[in-house]
Amino acid sequence: MKDIDFKKISEKLKEIRISKGLTQEYIANMADVNVSHISNIENNRVKISLPTLVHICNALNTTVDYVLTGEYSSPSSVLEQEILHELHSCPDETKEQLLKIIKALK
């Protein structure tokens, strides 16, 4: 059985946080942990617990599935989650256009 790549998870969390312009302090407050704990997670000095991962994902407005991409095998669902993650930030107009394109490609 393959070990969980906590380094990859921590890098993904940091990447998402930075891309959204959020501070470690904001995430720490939302996840009810210390700022130093967020720093330790992002720098792979500690392994993140499941409850903390869920709280951080909620604070980042992302899914645990998206953060854990690559940690389990189901390529189609991973791809679907990535598509959904990208779609989430699109305006409704863009979503409608993409839906028409998808239907046309079937």
Characterization of this structure:
By secondary structure, this protein is an all-alpha fold. The chain has helices at 6-19, 24-31, 35-42, 50-60, 64-67, 75-88, 92-105.
SSE topology sketch:
Layout: H1 6-19, H2 24-31, H3 35-42, H4 50-60, H5 64-67, H6 75-88, H7 92-105
Helix pairs in contact: 2-3, 2-4
Entry keywords:
69% helix; mainly alpha; globular; 106 residues
Helix and strand run: HHHHHHH
**Strand coverage percent:** under 5%
How far is the N terminus from the C terminus?
37 Å
What's the total count of β strands? Answer: 0
Mean pLDDT: 89
What can be said about the biggest beta sheet?
none
Query: What value does the Rg take, in angstroms?
Result: 16 Å
Tell me the number of helical segments per DSSP (H or I, 4 or more residues long): 7
Gross geometry: globular
Low-confidence stretches: none
Summarize the structure.
The chain is mostly helical.
